[in-house]
Amino acid sequence: MNESRLKISLSSLAILISVILCLILLWHLRGLLVTLMIATVLAATLSPIVDYVERFLPRWLGVILAYLIIIAILVGGGLVIGPTVFTQLQRLIQKFPLYLEILGNTAENLVMRFGITEPRALELIDKLLDLQALISWGVRSSQKLLLSSLGVTKGIVGGVFNLILSILLSGYLLAGSDKLIKGFVRLFPSPWNQRIEAQFEPVTERMGKYIQGRILVSLVLGVAITIGLKILGINEFALGLGVIAGFTNLIPFFGPVLGSVPALIVAVAQGGWVFLWVLLLFLVIQNIETYVLDPLLVGSSVKVEPLYQLLAVLGGVQVLGIIGALIVPPWIAGAGVVLENLYIEPREKNDYLES
Questions:
Q1: Under 8 Å CB-to-CB from 340, ≥6 apart: which residues?
Q2: Any idea what the Cα angle at residue 178 is, between residues 42 and 25, rounded to 5°?
Q3: Of these four, 65, 146, 160, 294, which has the most CB atoms within 10 Å of its CB?
Q4: Rounded to whole angstroms, how far apart are CA atoms 157 and 165?
Q5: Where are the domains of the chain?
Q6: Are 221 and 202 in contact (CB under 8 A)?
Q7: E strands present in the chain
Q8: Number of C-alpha atoms within 13 angstroms, CB side, residue 117?
Q9: Cβ contacts of residue 141 below 8 Å, gap of 6+?
């Protein structure tokens, strides 16, 4: 009895030590893991294009063609709207201190108009209206998020290198997906090898649809805000503010709020009614996104509860910075497929048969 207990204890200790060593190794390789996560998300996003082209051309050629199409779209879009966006953003940066000053004066006038005289209330309002402190806080928070992302990738040069490596890895994953999957599932005994192999297609589909949906929603939102701002008379920065809103919208939940702040600050300088119309514009567009576009283009394909998506964004930001907010949610969506197919459905089936 004592010998068997000793054997069990030694085997348990060996397993525990192995797990700890694996965790330490993964921590030291976290930069490579992030690169692999980004590459997997890119591969899942481009997979439909490659699968379609494969009907007519070899798969490796389809991968090259898919990347050429994406590069052509990005370069073409940059050439068409890039100069205008750059000019507007440069002008916006130059005028932004003036807009902040106007915002502060407007807020002080509102305080005086409402006749607030309570010392504690005035002290609280002064702190809220301390634009210099708010700007410093925003800059520090942005730097912290950026440094969190760069810390994983070992600086700016490392970040650029990892981005290039992610693109190359995603191309390799797309071109040799069948061989990679077969080689991976051979590590598992039967029937788990077949079950795991069956998960790759739905996982890839759900991860890809998540990113495709977010890009499409962000594109629609950016165009709608640009047109809306032009109609409301903010022609000077309409395209630049629309691009900012579109890019920030790629981050679920918090991105739309961040994207609306510059436009609202500019609107304050145009007058009270313009501010109210711009605020109404963002509220209407955000409600359309929340209740129409997201459920139609993202939620219906991802099938992940909004709470879990929110937790994925928060956890991704805490661990990986801005990069985490973009790549962790699709991984949670893919993990949901595995959990559903390998645990929840078999358990419900067993419960039904037993009953």
A1: none
A2: 65
A3: 294
A4: 12
A5: 30-348
A6: no
A7: none
A8: 1
A9: none
The answer to whether the peptide bond before residue 58 is cis (omega within 30 degrees of 0) is no
User: What is d(CA 268, CA 26) in angstroms, rounded to the nearest whole number?
Assistant: 49
Q: How many other C-beta atoms lie within 10 A of the C-beta of residue 171?
A: 20
What pLDDT shows up at residue 271? 75
**At residue 188, what is the residue type?**
F
For residue 130, give the DSSP letter.
-
Q: Long-range contacts for 296-299 (Cβ within 8 Å, ≥24 apart)? A: 297/213, 297/216, 297/217, 298/209, 298/210, 298/213, 298/214, 298/217
Give residue 47's identity as a one-letter amino acid code: S
Q: What is the pTM of this model?
A: 0.77
Q: Work out the average pLDDT over 38-45.
A: 87
Look at residue 157 and tell me whether its pLDDT is greater than 80. no
292: its two tokens:
């129409």
Amino acid at 327: I
For residues 234 and 267, the answer to whether their CB atoms sit within 8 Å is yes
Neighbours of 27 (CB within 10 A): 9
Confidence tier at 355 by pLDDT (50, 70, 90): low
Cα–Cα distances in angstroms (integers) from residue 259 to residues 123, 179, 235, 240, in the given order: 29, 42, 17, 11
| pLDDT 10s digits, 172-230 | 888 877 788 888 778 777 877 888 888 888 888 888 888 888 888 889 999 999 999 89
> Cβ atoms within 10 A of the Cβ of 80, count?
10
Distance CA 163, CA 326 (A): 14
- Kindly report the CA angle at 214 between 210 and 220, in degrees rounded to 5? 145
